[in-house]
Task: inverse folding
């Protein structure tokens, strides 16, 4: 009986360890995980980057059709909802 319990415990432990809920790949709203993306992301109020590295960057990136809210991070938002930090008005990017 103890060997059956031990086998059951080992099986449950193996399932828990190999589950597909990898915490490193969980992203925020309007973000997707990418194992090889450009470091250049579109950002509210910033001109498009002219030079981007070709190296793979791993992490969460904005979904297509979204831009990063701030240069130093923030959430991914639709470009037409970028808000000015200075005035609080909605700014429509060029």
Result:
């Amino acid at each position: 009986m103890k060997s059956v319990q031990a086998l059951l415990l080992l099986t449950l432990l193996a399932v828990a360890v190999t589950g597909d809920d990898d915490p490193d790949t969980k992203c925020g709203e309007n973000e997707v995980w990418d194992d090889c993306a450009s470091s250049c992301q579109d950002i509210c109020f910033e001109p498009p980057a002219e030079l981007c590295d070709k190296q793979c960057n791993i992490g969460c990136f904005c979904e297509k059709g979204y831009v990063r809210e701030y240069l130093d991070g923030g959430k991914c938002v639709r470009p037409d909802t970028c808000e000015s930090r200075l005035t609080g008005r909605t700014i429509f990017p060029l």
In short: The chain is about 15% helix and 25% strand.
